[in-house]
Amino acid sequence: MAPLVSEQCLNSTTPFTFLSKQILSTLSQSLGLLVLILVTSLEALFLLQKRPPIIHFINLSCFTIVFILKPYLSKKTHKVYLVDFSCLKPPSSCKVPFSKFLKNSSMIEGFDSESISFMANILTSSGQSQETYLPPALHHIPPKTHHHEYIKEVHMVLFPIMDDLLAKTKLSPQDIDILIVNCSGFNPSPSLASIVINHYSMKTDIKSFNLSGMGCSAGALGIDLAQNLLQNHKNSYAVVLSTEILSTGWYAGHEKPKLILNCLFRMGSAAILLTNKNQTSKSPKYELFKTLRTQKAYDDRAYLSTIREEDSDGKLGVTIKRDLLQVAGETLRANVTVLGSSILPLSEKFWHGVSIIRKRFLNKSEEIYVPNFKRVIEHFCLPASGRPVIREIGKGLKLGDREMEAAVMTLHRFGNQSSSSLWYELAYLEGKERVKKGDKVWQLGMGTGPKCTSLVWKCIRPIEGESKKVPWADCIHRYPIEAHGEGAN
Hints:
This protein starts with 6 loop residues before the first helix and ends in a 30-residue tail after the last strand. The strands form two sheets. The chain has a nine-stranded mixed sheet with strand order 3-2-4-5-1-6-11-10-9, sandwiched between helices. The chain contains 15 helices and eleven strands. 43% of the residues lie in helices and 15% in strands. The chain is α/β, with parallel strands linked by helices.
């Protein structure tokens, strides 16, 4: 499968976009220093002119009042913490080796030999192993694509992770104040959020939200939404449930752009508990350091790059168009540019800005300097859309194999789990005991629309013993491995 985004897309920038962000950021950081210099200069001038004491008093009083009141005049924000999270480990009966997938597909009416051959090529080049999972409905011949089966899959992927999260955190369903459920392809009535509320008999004033059609970035987007809600609701717990119901998206036609999703998407779900409470008995793992959302849905070409539509025979599927690669690169570039301007050290922003000016005015063949995000970020959770995708994003961000490892190994063991993949990657990093107190973790979600969401977390306590917990408990010792495209075990 072709790379989703090239290094050129990441390295190129709209002229002066990043530079302008850097200038604004630098000016903001320097404002306090300039005010201090101004006040000091005025005080020196008043001393030389032997002004009355009252002048000195007024000058210093104004300076003091401004700096004392500044934090109170600014909009007060509540810190948001990640208490814990849980990821689904599907039952072994749901495993689908390549041979089983292709054999079953060959027996389904609608697939011809060319379609089977195309899907075989996608599988072997995807970076997945033979141990990924599909829901029971897709193990039948033909697949069961009825509403009842969709609801059964909802129960299968959401209830176990919710149970595990509540057990981990020793909370009751009645303690949850905010519930957000994201699933791109299935939007029943009552909603998925209502299904969860009904099953757990949650309280009557819980604030529930259901996100659909938001693609693979929806899990990160749900965290951003939860953060905004927690700014307005004090002393609250918020749960974000992130999944994809695969039985609704199965395509049984012959158009190749629609067959890709059959091969790439696999079962997965995650439950995340956030809070703005001042922690006493419960010790959260992370503090939410930064969130950023960007999108290009305003552009027709970008909007239509991935779209669900019927084929010539009236069969519904998701079409992935060729220009998705360029569109995704542009969307990612915009997000990384803005994020970099706010979290990178001044030296990295300076050299990047200088390289843009040189390329613009002095040497158009000169490459633009790519800032080193590893100076501020220790761990990276990248979109697990395919091994070539991960490699190209990592190359564009100047990441090494170790920084890309969590994404590559998650893709190998569990496949592309859409919006929940980022949490399997974080679970991998925790299982390897790599995340230390004070480290920052960057989760980068990309999805249809197209849209891109960045989450930066800061670890605020030691994280130990996670290697014995699902989903990596029975296999973390086998990783990392050389994940070749042939689906090695």
